[in-house]
Design goal:
Elements lengths: L9 H7 L5 H13 L3 E7 L5 E4 L10 E2 L3 H9 L3 E3 L7 E9 L2 E10 L6 H21 L5 H4 L8 H9 L4 E3 L3 E8 L7 E7 L3 E9 L3 H20 L4 H16 L5 E9 L4 E7 L3 E6 L2 E4 L19 E4 L5 E5 L1 H4 L10 H11 L5 H16 L8 E8 L5
Antiparallel strand pairs: 1-2, 1-6, 2-3, 4-5, 5-6, 7-8, 8-17, 9-10, 10-11, 11-12, 12-15, 13-14, 13-16, 16-17
Helix pairs in contact: 1-2, 1-4, 6-7, 7-8, 10-11
């Protein structure tokens, strides 16, 4: 089979499609251009345990593992996987769907056996990336893609928290980061947030006190206040102070939010930090893992008009940072043993060769095993960041 012609109008056709018709449009385009016999978009659920087909309810396909099988392998390794099947049925190509480092799901395309050439697979990989960007945009106008991400109903607190998040990953020349929340369908007060511009990355991990809707409301206020202060262009310490004032004004010190704030200079690797509470920071460098001891300051909103000081540290190319909330480092087993630094060191050591998204998942899996149940007693937030540095 001859190589297909370039796909100059594909992006325009996807953009023109109604949000709920996006997958159907992708199916028609690929049938015309590469002879695709079937196209299925599968999205990762909130717990990152399964990949679920996007379809109009009540009709839906069976989910598949996000870790095993050909689709799970494509999602886990972030590379195309060709599944060789019977010649009459053709081959299936499974392609990761990722938006700027945020793993969205997998696109499965069934092709005639002689059409699964390297050139076509490369074109399909580009198509899957473009489709991912359109899904992210279309998700503003329809619940179709959100519903495909859940295996069961979310609590109201979890619904609020997931809507508040920037995503579950981000990749730039200077860094790659990935994050995870657990229990995914009942999360209450834990949150992570980030924003990167030309010169800086600001990363925060927040642990709101309490449970359920009250914790979610507290965290929503805290994150909104931090974003408002960040967008005003003030220093990291002043961001903490302004958020502290907002939380105290609302709760009068009866509720507060423990938050770790980090600001990375993308050109130099200099990091400014404000430790306002309980999230902990670990660094892995040259095979050695250590907890980065920061000056513990007051949680946001505990007292009126608290002042915060910044500390400075440096990251080097090859460094891996891990931030965990209280629900991780303070969780106890049935025997009363704290998950803590020793177990985190073990997990980081065992996952040194894998990507950040697998590290975050491994920490949560280790936490659940240590606790002895997936019904965790507290929310758990994990953020893993690999620092590459800026070339030149």
């Amino acid at each position: 089979m001859n190589a297909p012609e370039p796909l100059p109008s594909v992006e325009a056709r996807l953009r023109a499609a109604a949000p709920h018709r996006l997958v159907a449009t992708a199916r028609r385009v690929l049938a015309e251009r590469v002879g695709a016999r079937d196209v299925t978009l599968l999205l990762a659920d909130y717990g990152l345990s399964v990949l679920q087909p996007v379809s109009q309810l009540p009709d839906t396909g069976a989910p598949v593992s996000a870790h095993d099988g050909p689709q799970g392998r494509a999602f886990r390794e972030q590379s195309p996987v060709i599944e060789v099947v019977d010649a009459p049925a053709g081959h299936q190509v499974h392609l990761p769907v990722t938006v700027r480092g945020d793993r969205v799901g997998v696109l499965t395309v069934r092709l005639p056996a002689d059409a699964a050439t390297p050139d076509i697979v490369l074109q399909l990989a580009d198509f899957a990336t473009g489709l991912g960007h359109e899904v992210a945009t279309a998700g503003r106008d329809t619940d179709l893609f959100l519903l495909a991400r859940r295996t069961r109903r979310l609590t109201l607190a979890a619904e609020m928290q997931w809507q508040l998040l920037p995503g579950r990953g981000c990749a730039r020349e200077e860094f790659t980061l990935s994050a995870h929340l657990e229990p995914a369908y009942a999360i209450g007060g834990d949150n992570f947030d980030w924003s990167a511009d030309a010169d800086h990355l600001v990363l925060t991990v927040t642990d709101g006190t309490g449970h359920g809707i009250e914790a979610s409301l507290l965290t929503s206020l805290t994150v909104a206040a931090l974003r408002n202060a960040r967008r005003a262009g003030v220093s990291l310490a002043d961001q903490a102070s302004l958020a502290d004032q907002a939380v105290y004004a609302q709760y009068g010190g009866k509720k507060y939010a423990s938050t770790l704030l980090l600001e990375f200079d993308l050109a130099t690797g200099t990091v400014h930090a404000v430790d306002a509470g309980s999230p902990q920071l670990f660094r892995q460098r040259a095979g050695h893992t250590e907890r980065v001891e920061l000056e513990a300051q007051l949680p946001l909103g505990m007292f009126e008009e608290s002042l915060y000081d910044e500390q400075t540290l440096t990251v080097e190319p090859g460094d891996r940072l891990l931030v965990v909330s209280t629900g991780v480092h303070a969780t106890r087993s049935a025997a009363g043993d704290v998950f803590g630094e020793r177990v985190l060191r073990q997990v980081l050591g065992a996952t040194r060769a894998v990507e950040p998204h697998e590290v975050a998942r491994a920490v949560v899996a280790g936490l659940i095993e240590h606790h002895g149940s997936s019904e965790l007693a507290a929310d758990a937030a994990v953020v893993c960041l690999d620092w590459h540095g800026r070339s030149g």
